[in-house]
Amino acid sequence: MRKLRRSAAPLGSRLLGDTAESPTIRRVRVQVLLTMFLLGANLIGAVIVGALVSVVVPGPNVLDLESYWWVNVIVIPAYVALAFIVGVVWGTTRAVRALRWAIEDREPTRQEQVNTLSMPWQLTRVQIFLWTVGLVLITTIDGIIDPQSIPKVAFTIGAGGTVVCAFSYLLSEFALRPAAARALEAGDPRRIRIAGVMGRSILSWILGTGVPVSGLMIIATFSFTRPYETTSDRMAIAILALGGITLVFGFFLTFLSGFATTAPIGNVRSGMAEVERGNLNVRLAVYDGTELGELQSGFNRMADKVRERETIRDLFGRHVGHEVAEAALLKSPELGGEERDIAVFFIDLIGSTEIASSRPPAEVVALLNRFFAVVVDEVDAHGGFINKFEGDAALAIFGAPGEIDDRCGSALSAARKISVRLREEVPECRAAVGVASGRAVAGNIGAKSRFEYTVIGDSVNEAARLSDLAKNVPGAVLASKITVEGAHSTEAENWKFGDSVTLRGRSEQTVLASPIPSQSPASPSAPPGRA
């Protein structure tokens, strides 16, 4: 299997680095991103509050330094500084401390896993608390100065805080992906999800619809209760300003929400593309704590099952032959078989008893493996398959289960080539080969609970007898005349006919054929064609 190509952004963005980076770099990256994102979210909130207070929401001018000077000059700056220290500095430091397990590069406990995945919500709760305190504090002070300013101040700070909290959650979730990926690797993310895809959609709705509609409703209410403060010009300015805020920041929040949703989906799509290209060594980084993270982990489980299935399929093919395995996978195998015209050869090691008694077992096994490697290589090259290994012998079939144009010629050519290669590559041993052909039954033999694919017929017995006889002739390769006559002329020309013999267990005589010594078998450039 091919090695998985490393993605340029395994966590969905280059800003988040790589899953294999060092814990120190990961800690610095997370803390910097969290600080920048939380600071940016609060700056956005401040811009929105300023715009709402100054030009959007009708009511008293709370920016008037003459009446509200000590609120605008002392209270608000002091509280903003305190909120920055608590919300940004303390919040991010606390978050990094909670992620110490990731920095130490160890497996998290279940509680650490839950804390990591819920960290975006914990940071957002800090922002909710700080903006709520600010709303109560500033609204109360402004209300003491002028009670009519309470609705205006409460709405503007509430709207700004809502936007800040929405941005804080999405940006914190993005910044904490590296830690979330490590946490999700440690166990099943189900039942510890804080907010799902639906929660992200609600956040987008709050800013894109909830806040602007609420603002328009308040402006409309003012137009009825205080028509002297909501002239047509002021109404137009308020609507334009509120629309501009909604277009800009609503789009940004919707983009973040959409990106958080599409990034894991794109991650899974890239993994599926790798599987389609044949690369089964695919493992996605699971970094999303929502249903999409379950989709990522589900893909990994599916890829594991596919790899396991392909491993079993490969082992199955190695044991029974890939053609037999493919046929068994395409349709349910049943006991029984069909008559086929086939060619077979039987190869048996000469003097195997002496070899086993004079060599250590490990050396005998190594010798047999070298011997069978040559046999399997040539059988595969000629389009046949090894039906079975029997100790120091093997039976090869040509023409079943798949058809071969020249089954006899393929079997004869493979036998000649094996004989030459064994003398050159495995000189420590000699093998006798018998080649025969004819009608046989090919199919599954055994019981319903355990069977194997094999061929049964006179040609198989004839090949085994020819192999026994070949042990005592020069070259140690014999075939039947019928097999040579059934081969194409290009292969038949390499054989000569000899005596007629009655093989053990057979009533009819068999005309023997052996390779012409001066003819050296040519190695085929490709397996013989199949019908």
Task: Lay out the secondary structure.
Layout: H1 23-56, H2 65-98, H3 100-103, H4 110-145, H5 150-175, H6 177-185, H7 197-225, H8 232-276, H9 291-320, H10 322-330, E1 336-350, H11 352-358, H12 361-381, E2 385-390, E3 393-398, H13 407-425, E4 430-447, E5 450-456, H14 458-470, E6 477-480, H15 481-485, H16 489-492, E7 495-501, E8 510-515
Parallel strand pairs: 4-6
Antiparallel strand pairs: 1-3, 1-4, 2-3, 4-5, 6-8, 7-8
Helix pairs in contact: 1-2, 1-5, 1-8, 2-4, 4-5, 4-6, 5-7, 5-8, 7-8, 8-9, 9-10, 12-13
Describe it.
The protein has helices at residues 23-56, 65-98, 100-103, 110-145, 150-175, 177-185, 197-225, 232-276, 291-320, 322-330, 352-358, 361-381, 407-425, 458-470, 481-485, 489-492, and strands at 336-350, 385-390, 393-398, 430-447, 450-456, 477-480, 495-501, 510-515. Strands 1, 2, 3, 4, 5, 6, 7 and 8 form an eight-stranded mixed β-sheet that branches. It is of the alpha+beta class. Strand 7 (495-501) and strand 8 form a beta hairpin. The protein is rod-shaped, with a radius of gyration of 40 Å. Helix 1 (23-56) runs antiparallel to helix 2 and helix 1 (23-56) packs antiparallel against helix 8. The model is unreliable at 1-8 and 519-531 (pLDDT under 50). It contains 16 helices and eight strands.
